[in-house]
Amino acid sequence: MKNTLKMTGMALSLLVAAGLMAAAPAGAAETKTIKAGIGLNEQSPQYKGLLKFKELVEAESKGRFKVDLFANAQLGDDAKMMTSLRAGTLEMTCPSTAPIAGLDRKWMVFDLPFLFPNEEVADKVLDGPFGQKYLDSLPAHGIIGMSFWENGFRQLTNSKVEVKSPADLKGLKIRTMENPVHLATFKTLGANPTPMPFSEIFSALSEKTIDGQENPSTTNFLQKYYEVQKFTTLSNHFYSPFVFMYSKKLWDTLSKEDQALILKAAKEAGAYQRKINRETMGEAVAGMEKAGMTVTRLTPEQHRAFVDATKDIAGQFEKDMGADNLKAILEEIAKAAK
Ligand code: KDG
Q: pLDDT for 256-291, tens place per residue?
């Protein structure tokens, strides 16, 4: 074995001497590849946020890091990719907060219906002490929560009926994320909710095993749900944050300087992603309308009927998410809304 290694070494030196093989510069660190997976596609603002992160990290590290991106749930859906992070087999993913409740029930607080009145208030609460406290609780689950990105306000689509009131939802089979608050909300509204991974939505809609689903308009447009859905109601019923996260097992192998470099890029890319996410919502709605969908813009009175119908959901889950957490976020929202 030792002789083989010696021979290989000699052969390599000869190749370098003959200029047939570039020698690595003395002391050059090996390029480290970081993998990041998401469920949305390459046209999504989430993926464009990852491209920004890739650009920042590869430039700042002068090529010591290379970031490989995987869209369309190539590496699995949110829950599966979080499991990979916890196992140390994948560096990064960026799930909605909804599936994180499967790790820690206090995260359900972000999935309450009609919680945030607008993006500005959401940003203040998520980027303030309340959101940081939640990110700081993730290492206990093998995850480093780097920053909040934005999925956005969620809107309903379906193939059966124009939805203007909770009564219109009666019996509709609606896909929800795998989260008890989402399920309870649509049950309370009279629908028949079905939890399902994101990557299975389009085929379930086209095979009519479900009548509808709910996601932010940009996702609904970019996933081409208009090909299998007739109606969308701009209900804003949930505000969905993303959490851009890193495997703790793999994070702990990085130097403090590299951790700081990656964290800084995660935050900068997050601010960029929120901006472009908001810029695309209007054109996504216009695109779905142009594709023939009926877009229902609720009047304040119609919107109020959905808010009133779901006002008891928070109380149902107060114990699960922690009464103190619920109280704290409502106080933070009231402060941020002033
Ligand atoms: O890349 C994010 C997706 O995996 C998922 O979080 C999108 O909101 C989503 C959903 O409905 O599953």
A: 999 999 999 999 999 999 999 999 999 999 999 999
The model's pTM is 0.91
- Burial status of residue 333 (CB atoms within 10 A of its CB: 0-12, 13-18, 19 or more): middle
Could you read off the pLDDT of 27-48 as tens digits, one per residue? 556 899 999 999 999 999 999 9
Of all protein residues, the one whose alpha carbon is nearest to atom 12 of ligand 1 is 198
What is the C-alpha separation between 125 and 116, in angstroms, rounded? 9
How many residues are present in the chain? 338
Ligand 1 centroid, distance to 161 Cα (angstroms): 24
User: Which among 76, 92, 87 has a CA at the least distance from the CA of 199?
Assistant: 76
Which residues fall within 8 angstroms of residue 36, CB to CB, at 6 or more apart? 50, 53, 54, 67, 68, 69, 70, 91, 92, 93, 94
CA of 303 to the centre of ligand 1 (A): 24
Q: Compute the distance between CA of residue 67 and CA of residue 94 in angstroms, rounded to an integer.
A: 14
Q: Measured in angstroms, how far is the CA atom of residue 171 from the centroid of ligand 1?
A: 24
Taking the C-alpha atoms of residue 236 and residue 170, their distance in angstroms, rounded to an integer, is 19
